[in-house]
Amino acid sequence: SLTKAERTIIGSMWTKISSQADTIGTETLERLFASYPQAKTYFPHFDLNPGSAQLRAHGSKVLAAVGEAVKSIDNVSAALAKLSELHAYVLRVDPVNFKFLSHCLLVTLASHFPADLTAEAHAAWDKFLTIVSGVLTEKYR
Asked: Taking Cα atoms as reference points, which of 46, 45, 72, 44 lies closest to residue 59?
């Protein structure tokens, strides 16, 4: 679980991130599809060209879910229960993709907030996103 210091770091950075959530979400997905093209198979109906309306809309949804997890940092499992079920039972997303997405989000955060993403903040976000990924894959077990 996260320490109090880690929760503080995540909460304070989220304030900055949330004001750019759409851009960050879109860039995160663009990175995901560029770096891990196999992830595109889950979006056969999407226009996956950089900056497309569908990519922007889904990027916004992804960051909104991260925001829900931040708001419910002590109970991420409850906050993301419906998403967990959707991705496991309906969409059947390979769990490794959540790790890839987390990595791409960290890279995007580093590019947007280089001064904020200190080693300590990077570690806190990595730990938090590992928790989020764990929640999103818990229905697979």
From this structure: 46
